[in-house]
Design a protein that fits this description.
The protein has 525 residues and is of the alpha/beta class. Among the domains are: 128 residues, Rossmann fold (3-Layer(aba) Sandwich); 97 residues, Serine Threonine Protein Phosphatase 5, Tetratricopeptide repeat. The chain is 49% helix and 6% strand. It has 23 helices and 5 strands. Helix 12 crosses helix 17 and helix 16 packs across helix 17. The two termini are 49 Å apart. The C terminus is likely disordered. It binds a DNA duplex (15 and 15 nucleotides) through helix 15 and helix 22.
DNA sequence: AGTGCAGTTGACTTT
DNA sequence: TAAAGTCAACTGCAC
């Protein structure tokens, strides 16, 4: 039997800057492995669009591996079973993969894999692929460590790797990519998603740094401009088609380029520089959030600050939740964003925050169900960013300022002409500007004139903004002042709080802890 | 030309 | 990444 070094691909679907692949190649014959785990894809946060993106990425990964002389071997089933099966045909000398900060399901699966490998005497090497530090005690040196990590050289990709070739007498079982149906997933036909793959990721990065990113800072907040001018790298980073380190170093190179051009007297827009630094800080926030889930996996299910347990649990109204999910709340900006999300499986950071804040405060929904819904609809779903963010927008972390977004104000700020709202809510097509964000204020005559009867063509607002916000504030601030919440918040800060504005001495007391914009990197994108 | 005043702006506080 | 409210400084303008 042949001896192989197994490279287990997970959420790292690329060839470049792939330390696991580079290390395995040093040790001998490489067998690249991907395992479709039906049980994983049945988890409530997973969606067929994620699966589609992964399949697209895998096809490219296979081609990328082919260029190195390798072939991707993919199997469907439980990882331990797959490894066991492989073992009857090859000698697995070592397993190489990247550290993964996932949910409980992948965490438990990794424990099972670890146990099996240990029992079988096979060493498992795991490598970090971002700025997340395993077993971190506190955040004191975190920022510096992050920068060090990002400055490490890109993992070298050998030009040629000796790959495993099955003997014709004992071929590995043929396993074509499963169809979505095989995994009991139904693909949504009306979604218009970004296409997965390492080369798409590289192209996206290039166009952002060449042109699209020049106005990033000012364009990221409005859903209209964000679509083109945000980096749109988030799904690629989430599924590992590109690493944060690759992005960071490319941004650095671009910044140096701009500085150099400036020195030589070439005029360049100052906006681009500022946009790049703004983008760069979001790269670090990306890891900052994932670190939270890595340090405290339970926050996938429970409040970071336990003092808030029980605050919303008994108030869950499924009818409200349903209307929010479908974009039928009667608040035009909320509904427009939700419908946009349905179609594109992405929306910019600010609007994500607004959607979540509306669910948490206006509708007083516990974050868990909205989180699962949004996870499915974010093509860039990254557990380590998602759950901390959702909790933050719900006000249950203890350490963050309560931020309640006004759907009407956000609409006026981010969509001043109402073009976004009209585009995504055809019911409001003929409604003029004065009413576009508050159609319920139209008189019956106006409703007839503008062909939009409130309660018939477009919903009556699901809640009254003023009353709902007042009641939410009252409940959350009352709890926030409790002894339990105050001491709980202290503990959360010790472990998870950003140390950014702490040393040496802040000149002015910060009004709020400046958690940066970023979901997904989404960040905004 | 200085004064009073309503309305605006921005910094800061509170929730 | 919030929004609403306070307060003081500032502005334009009438007299």
């Amino acid at each position: 039997m042949q001896t192989v070094q197994l490279v287990w691909f997970k959420r790292d679907l690329r060839v470049a800057d792939h330390q696991a692949l580079a290390q395995a190649a040093k040790l001998g014959t490489v067998l690249p492995l991907y395992v479709f785990e039906p049980d994983l894809w049945r988890q409530p946060e997973m969606d067929p669009t994620h699966f589609q993106f992964v399949c697209q990425s895998l096809q490219q990964l296979d081609r990328g591996l082919n260029d190195l002389g390798l072939r991707l071997h993919s199997f469907t089933g439980d990882v331990v079973e797959v490894l066991r099966g492989l073992q009857s045909q090859v000698v697995i000398e070592s397993v190489h993969s990247h550290e993964e900060t996932g949910g409980k399901w992948t965490y438990d699966r990794d424990l099972r894999v670890k146990a099996w490998l240990q029992a079988s005497g096979i060493p498992w090497f795991e490598y970090p692929q971002n700025g997340v530090v395993r077993g971190l005690r506190n955040r004191d040196r975190w920022a510096a460590t992050w920068k060090e990590r990002m400055s490490q050289p890109i993992a070298p990709t050998p030009a040629r790797i000796e790959g495993f070739v099955p003997k014709s007498s004992t071929p590995l079982p043929a396993t074509p990519l499963p169809e979505a149906n095989d995994l009991q997933l139904s693909l949504t036909k009306d979604a218009d998603c970004q296409i997965g793959g390492e080369s798409q990721a590289a192209a996206m990065l290039n166009s952002f740094l060449e042109t699209r990113g020049s106005q990033y800072r000012s364009a990221m907040s409005s859903p209209i401009t964000a679509q083109e001018q945000c980096s749109r790298l988030s799904p690629y980073i989430a599924w590992g088609c590109i690493t944060i380190k690759q992005v960071y170093q490319a941004v650095r190179a671009k910044q140096m380029g701009i500085a150099e051009a400036k020195n030589m007297g070439v005029a360049c827009s100052p906006a681009f520089s500022r946009s790049l630094s703004s983008f760069q800080s979001r790269l670090s926030w990306h890891c900052h959030f994932i670190q939270k889930l890595d340090d405290e996996p339970e926050l996938e299910f429970r409040n970071l600050c336990r003092a808030y347990d029980g605050m919303r649990e008994d108030d869950f109204r499924s009818d409200h939740f349903e209307q929010w999910c479908r974009g039928l709340t009667g608040f035009p900006m909320i509904d427009a964003c939700m419908r946009y999300l349905h179609r594109h499986r992405w929306i910019n950071f600010r609007m994500r925050a607004m959607l979540m804040s509306f669910a948490a405060y206006h509708l007083w929904l516990h974050w868990r169900e909205p989180a699962l819904f949004l996870a499915k609809f974010f093509l860039d779903f990254e557990p380590g960013i998602h759950f901390p963010q959702v909790q933050m927008q719900s006000g249950v972390t203890g350490i963050n300022t309560i931020r309640i977004y006004s759907p009407v104000k956000q609409a006026m700020d981010q969509d001043p002409n109402g073009e976004f709202v009209r585009r995504w809510i055809p019911e409001l097509e003929h409604v003029p500007k004065p009413f576009i964000f508050e159609p319920w204020k139209m008189s019956i005559d106006d409703q007839t004139r503008y062909r939009c009867r409130i309660g018939v063509d477009y919903p009556v607002p699901i809640v009254d903004h003023r009353t709902a916000v007042a009641s939410a504030k009252d409940r959350i601030y009352t709890l926030r002042r409790s002894e339990q919440a105050i001491s709980g918040a202290q503990q959360v800060y010790e472990k998870h709080g950003s140390r950014k504005n702490r040393d040496p001495l802040p000149k002015r007391r910060p009004r709020s802890s400046p958690e940066s914009q970023l979901w997904l990197p989404g960040m905004e994108e």
